[in-house]
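G., the chain you wanted modeled:
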Amino acid sequence: MAPALAHALGHRPRECTGRAAGGQHRARRRPADRALAARQPHTAPLAERGPDAAPRARAEPRTRGPRRACGQFGLDRRHRPRRPRGAGRDGGRPPHRPAAGWRPRRLGRGLATPGRRSAGPAADKPDAVRRAACAPFHAAAVVLLRQAQAALAGAGPGRRDGVAVNAPRLIEREVPPRTAWALEQAGVAPLLARLLAARGVREAAELDDSLAQLLPPSGLKGLPEAATLLADSLQRGERIVIVADYDCDGATACAVMLRGLRLLGAQPGHLGYVVPDRAVHGYGLTPTIVDLALEQQPALLVTVDNGIASLAGVAHARAHGLKVLVTDHHLPAVLDGAVVVPEADAIVNPNQPGCGFASKSLAGVGVAFYVLMGLRAELRARGAFAEVPRLDGLLDLVALGTVADVVKLDANNRRLVAQGLKRMRAGRAQPGVMALFSAAKRDASKAQGFDLGFALGPRINAAGRLADMTLGIETLTTDDPERALALATQLDTINRERRDIEAGMREMAEARLDGLIEALAGALPPAVALFDADFHEGVVGIVASRIKDRVHRPTFVFARGADGHLKGSGRSIPGFHLRDALDLVSKREPDLLAKFGGHAMAAGATLAVDDVNRFAMALARVADEWLNEQDLTRTLRHDGALPPEAATPDTARLLDGQVWGQGFEPPVFCDRFELISQRLVGEKHLKLRLRQAGRLVDAIWFNHIEMLPERATLAYRLSLDEWQGQQRVQYVIEAAQV
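Predicted structure as C-alpha cells:
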C-alpha cells in the first residue's frame, strides 16, 4: 500500500485543528504552539458556556473542534508563526505516533475501555486486530481511489496547506421592493417586511396562522377511504395497532394517532402500537414487525411516518387477514423504473402518485393529523358526536415532529408549527412536551422552533438511536406530569450519552475524511462515503450531517449492523436528490444496494460489508455528473446589513416571535466589524467584542476556535441573551470573510 494512502486509510488519525470560517474544511494540522494566556477561572454568563448550557442560546451545532484551554487571546499580542507542515520543534519531522496510542476523547459511559476502541461491533477488539480486520477494505480503497483520482481532483475546490477549502460564499438575498412596500402598508414592521419578502411571502394574508387558513383535508388522495376504514373499525370495536417509526417524527405521529383516536371514541384497550428497533428490525413495516403486531391480535394496522415502500410488509399483513392503512410522507418505491405502492386498503401520502395536495412537505405527524381531521368529519357525518371533539390540542406534538424532521416550512407547515408554539407558550402542551422543556432547561413560555429542533427533538431521537423509541412514545402519551418528567429525564441522560458517542465518532470520521482528501492530492471528492468498524449505527445520520456541513458534499456514513450488513445514513446538499441518486446507483450496480429509501436531502441504504468502497465510487460518479462547481460551493444567503438602530431587544423579540426553519431560514445579517477582543470560552467557542460605527456589541461563535483578524466581514444572527434578569442583544456568528 502506498505510504500516503496507508496513512490516510489506516486507523491513526492525524491531530486536528479547528474549522475554517463557516464550518468548512481546512488543512487539519495542529499548530505547534498557541499563544494562549494562562487559563482563567470561568465565570462567564450562561450564554458563553455553549449551546447546551444556555437556556436561550440560538446556535446551530456544527463540527466540533479540538479541546483547548479557555483564556484571553488579545489582538495586540504577537503570535508565533506556524511551522511548515510536518516540522517538529527542532525543524525536523515529528516522531511517529503508534496507532494504538490514540483514543477518541469524549465517549459514552462504559464505552471508553482502556486499550480498546470506543463504540460499535469492534469495540472489544484491540487496535491491531481491528486494523487487520479492516485491511481488505483499505486495500480495495487504494485501487478505487487511484482509478478515480484524476476525475475527482477537478470536482470543485480542494485543500491546500493551511488554507480553507470550500469556505462559504456570502450572497445577499434579493428583496422585491414592491412586495416589501405592500407588506409594510399592510402593517408589517419595515425590517420584518423586508425579511419576509426576501423569503417569498407575497401578501399579508400568508401571515395569517389561524387554523381556518390550513389547507382542507379533502385535497389528500386516499383520505376518504382512510376515514371510512377507521370509522368502521371504531364503531365495530376492533383493535387497532399503530406501526410507528424510531425517530421524532414517527414518535410524535404515533402519539398524535393514539391520542386522536381516543378523542374520537376509541377505547384505550382497543389501541396499541409497535415500533421497530433500529438495530434489530430496520426501518418500516417489515414482515417481522407485522408478526410482532399480530401478537396484539389487531384487525387493522395503521402505519405512521412509514409504509409507502413496505411492499412485502403490507402483503404479509394482508395474507394474515389484517386490514392496512398506510399514512406516510416519504417517496414510494421504484421497481424496474416504475413507481409502485403497496396494496394496502388505503394510503394517505401527499407524495404518492396522483395526489394533488398543495403541501408536499407535510411531515409524517402532519399526515397523521390530517387523517384524524378526515376521520372526525366522517364520524360527524354519521352522527357519532353529541359534541364535536377538538383536535387542536394535538398541535404541540405536530409542531415538534414537523420541526424535528427538518421538512420544508411552507405556509401550511408554518401554520401548524405556529399553532403548536402558541400552545407551548401558554402552558397548554402535553405533559411530556412540558417535561422535555424542563429536562432541556428551556423556558416553554418563550418556545421557538429552535427549541424544538435542537433541544426537544434530539432528546426524543436519542431513544431511537441508543435505546428503544418506546421510551419516547410513552413520554408523549402519558397524562401524568410526574411520570412524564421521569421519562424525560431518562431521555436527557440518553441524549448525553449520544453526544459523547457522536463526538468520538466525528473525530474518527474527520480523520478518515482528511486521509481521503490527502490521498486525492488535496481534492474534495464530489460525494463522500465513510465507514469504520467502530462506528455506532444509531449515530451515523448525525455524523453524516456534521461532515456534510463541513465539506458541503453529499455524505454517507456507514456502520456495521447487527445482521452483519452495513447500515448507512446519508445527508445531501441543494441540487442533489439523494434518494434519486441511490436509485440511479442501484440501476448501474444492480447487486450493490440491498435496500434503500428516503428523501431528497436524507436517505438510508444497506450494503454488504465488502461493497462500501464500490458504493463510494458509484455515488461519487453520480455526483460528478449531477453537480457543478457552483453546486459544490457552499453559499450562505444573508439579509444585508442590520441598521445599528435596529440592533435592540425589541427587534430580537420581534424576530423570535416568527416561525423560521428549513426552507424559511432565520434572518442572517452581514456587515463589516472591527474586533476589539476575542477569547475562547467553554474551550471551544469564540467570544467576541465588536465595534461598528462607534457602537460596541458582544458576539459569540459557537464551536469555532480559530481567531479572526482585527477587521472582518461577519454573517450573524440576532440573539436575545439573558443574564441575571437582564436582556441584551448578542450576535451569533455564522460565517466570516477576512
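The first helix runs from residue 3 to 9.

Shout if anything looks off.
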